[in-house]
Amino acid sequence: MDYLYNPYKAKRHTAFAKKGMVATSQPLAAQAGIEIMQQGGNAIDAAIATAAALTVVEPTSNGIGGDAFALVWVNNELHGLNASGPAPAQLTIDNVKAAGHEKVPTYGVTPITVPGVPAAWAELSKKFGKLSLLDTLKPAIRYAEEGYPLTPILGKYWKIAYEKFKKASTSDAFDAWFETFAPDGRAPEIGEIWKSPGHAKTLQLIGESNGEAFYHGELADQIDACMKAHGGYLRKADLEKYEAEWVTPISTNYRGYDVWEIPPNGQGMITLMGLNILAELPQPTIEDVDSLHYQIEAMKLAFVDGKTFITEEADMPIDYRDLLTKEYAEKRAAEIGEEATIPEPIDLPNGGTIYLATADEAGNMVSFIQSNYMGFGSGIVVPETGIALQNRAVDFKLDENHPNALKPGKRSYNTIIPGFLTKDGEAIGPFGVMGGFMQPQGHLQVAVHTIDYHLNPQAALDAPRWQWIEGNQVLVEPDFPNYLALALARRGHDIQATIDDGRFGRGQIIWRDPKTGVLAGGTESRTDGSIAVW
Q1: Burial of 360 (0-12, 13-18, 19+ CB in 10 A)
Q2: Which residues form the domain of 252?
Q3: pLDDT digits (tens, 9 = 90+) for 152-188
Q4: Under 8 Å between Cβ of 446 and 460
Q5: 500 lies in a domain?
Q6: Which entry of 14, 353, 415, 450 is annotated as an active-site residue?
Q7: Could you tell me the end-to-end alpha-carbon distance of the chain, in angstroms, rounded to an integer?
Q8: Three-class secondary structure of residue 429 per DSSP
Q9: Is position 353 annotated as part of the catalytic site?
Q10: Distances (CA, A) of 3 to 271, 337, 429
Q11: Per-residue pLDDT reduced to its tens digit, 418-467
């Protein structure tokens, strides 16, 4: 890939390596992945090791009780894994309303869905790994047993979560969270050692049993008992039925590059829709108001349609492929003029998160994402296990006529998405930007920065970001060029500069040169990002 121009002063330099690379948001987790590679593991083993380590060294964003997705490049083929979990059998609209809720609550036992993370690790290990699952989890087990010092951004969000749960805690169901993550009656400080022996034991059991202990054994029993004790809906029977699903990735060709995502129930197709619309408009030019205006308007239209229709594929009122057609893109692009508009859903026929990227010398590459959602998730921790349970059901609707209506056994619209880039059938590499509904917008911006602006991986991540919120409201980072912000405002965009409090996402990139095999990586300057190389 040619890097022609970089007007932005990169906050870090792009990293290069030959034998292996791991890019993620925590240095210890990146090192765990490289450690496993050096022990004979491949990029898949490294991804599992890094993901497991992140549940320990960045619990503010993910955990064993969350969901995961992966795109895996092996033997010149891209594979997709959907390890998001469904609503429990007892979690029904009637039961939630009977409990006095007009919508699914954000915290507590109600929004907990079946966790998919342990199943993701086990499936990846079984299908593509070279080492045992237990071997890949050993660095994470060591971090949990011995402890580690908190990094700056981690410490910041840990303290925010502590204050949040102090207010949200309405029952003893939250006690185990405080016992696990605030053992001294406060959030641990930056640089302070934190350890979690219960977490270490859980990881050991998952590794020894290839995930069976979590879904059928001792850990499943502990989860079941915790839910029963506090009036939750998740049961061992829900865990026993769960399996991660291998899926066929979806893509669009954007100016000669194939951009890949996971199909619904994930929101990755919003990125593809946005790129398709953008492809019908003049090619973006760096630091140009027309370019930014078109990107924002394309993303608005893609997002409003995605939020209207995306859910579990079987429950979508349309065939999602209709949203990826050239006809759809042309129709939507024709609606974009010189002024900002407030989008409405298209009329069609019926029909917070961690991200990591790994690559090895053999050409294997992994784009992996896992999350508890909204930081620590539900705020419910299974006592003495370190298992923080997600709150993914919060995105379900209690309207039976809505495509994303709550239903037992159904997977909700899911915000976490891994991305991958190929060209002419050859892998360029994995990329991702975490951060709730910022993720499709971050993916589109990374694609444009890479393909249209020719920025290197680090510069593509460091470039100032924007985020569409609703209506014409667009947030921009403090270092977003002021003259561009003013020009966008003159187009009718409600531009609001704001501090980077995590809302602009945190990304990683690894590109591979098809001719030399050299790996080039960028990591996120907005967090404690790190690239480990070999």
Answers
A1: buried
A2: 1-267+310-316+351-465+505-534
A3: 999 999 999 999 999 988 899 999 999 999 999 999 9
A4: yes
A5: no
A6: 353
A7: 21
A8: strand
A9: yes
A10: 23, 31, 16
A11: 999 999 999 999 999 998 889 999 999 999 999 999 999 999 999 999 99
